[in-house]
Amino acid sequence: MSIVEAWLAELQERFGGLSLTVSDVRIGVFYSAARISTGHTGVAFTPRNLDDTVCCPQSAASAPPAGRMAGRDAWELASYSFSDVPLRRAVGVAVLNALSAHAMETDAVEGVRILPGVDALDAAGVEAEDTVAMVGGFTPFIKRLKGQVQELWIVDKHPEALKPDEAELWRPPNKASEIIPQASVIIITGSALVEGGLDELLAASSGARRVVLAGPTASPWPPPFFARGVHLLGGIRVLDGERILQIVSEGGSGYFFEDGAEKICMVPSSLTAQV
Fold first, then answer.
1. 149-159 tens-digit pLDDT
2. What is the C-alpha separation between 91 and 168, in angstroms, rounded?
3. CA quadruple 56, 91, 258, 214: dihedral sign
4. Which of 13, 57, 132, 153 has its CA 20 to 30 A from that of 63?
5. In which band, very low, low, confident or very high, does the pLDDT at 65 lie, cut at 50, 70 and 90?
6. What digits encode the pLDDT tens for the residues 214-248?
7. DSSP code of 220?
8. Residue 217's closest CA among 189, 253, 198?
9. Where are the domains of the chain?
10. Which CATH architecture best describes the domain 112-268?
């Protein structure tokens, strides 16, 4: 069972078959968002490669059913999270994050500390002697870590997104299996929940002293992630769902989310976060 399948299964068990629907779905340039019938909203990274959802009848059949998602069963749309179609996965993960927000509001998460307003890098406790592998280029993290740790590698599909003085840090994704086992701290973008490969990345991270899953997409129900080797989740808690839906619809990136959400970190109670 993949980590995303375990996430869905735990939520279904937690809610015991509770009937929930999706009341709104938005698919934006950078993020997608979904609101469920409880009023809770979740977001997920929108994949860039949409070759399989271009505007022709054959590919349209595999795309999310635009105009027909609102009002549908939340568990049905959550199962999109392990679809073969990237855009469906974005919708599914957004719904799972909305369901997770509902679960964390209604039930205490046993053995988990939730730290509101805390940045993931602050909580990670990175030290000068650490070697850091970053899967996905987190610009604010790069600025803070460059030249401050023993080694910093950035594994990313888009080297053009890095600044000229950061280019030497870049490694291609096909080198991830070589780079990650060398790192003492691993920071993985939450977009891996949509783009795939998270299970393999976590398997390669088993020797690290700290594994962080970060970004707005990394806002799940924590237990299945901690059980599979994640030490810290650095996501968001949506405070104003209507505002987040508007931001996503208007093409906003995560930098705009502070208008309707706050950063949160989630760590196992046994782990001492550096905050």
1. 999 999 998 88
2. 35
3. negative
4. 13
5. confident
6. 999 999 999 999 999 999 999 999 999 999 999 99
7. -
8. 189
9. 3-106, 112-268
10. 3-Layer(aba) Sandwich (3.40)
**E strands in the chain:** 22-27, 31-36, 41-45, 112-116, 131-135, 151-155, 170-171, 185-189, 210-214, 232-238, 261-268
Residue 129 token pair: 């002697």
Q: Is the pLDDT of residue 122 over 80?
A: yes
Looking only at the bridges linking them, the beta strands covering 31-36 and 131-135 are unpaired
Under 8 Å between Cβ of 3 and 20: no
Check: pTM over 0.90? Answer yes or no: yes
- At 17, is the pLDDT very low, low, confident or very high (cuts 50, 70, 90)? confident
Residue 124 burial class via C-beta count within 10 angstroms: exposed 0-12, middle 13-18, buried 19 and up: buried
Which CATH code for domain 3-106? 3.30.390
CA-to-CA distance for 172 and 137, rounded, in angstroms? 12
What are the strands of the beta sheet with 31-36, ordered from one edge? Answer: 22-27, 31-36, 41-45
Decide if 136 contacts 188 (C-beta within 8 A): yes
Euclidean distance between CA atoms 245 and 94, whole angstroms? 11
143 alpha carbon, distance to own chain's centre? 21
What six digits make up the tokens of 88?
Answer: 């469906």
Question: How far from 157 is each of 92, 137, 168, 192, 195, CA to CA, in Å?
Answer: 23, 9, 14, 12, 11
Which residue has tokens 């299945």?
Answer: 224
Could you give the dihedral angle defined by the CA atoms of residues 112, 241, 198 and 4, in that order, rounded to the nearest 10 degrees?
A: 80
Give me 130's structure tokens: 């650490």
Instruction: Record the tokens describing residue 12, joined without a space.
Output: 């279904």
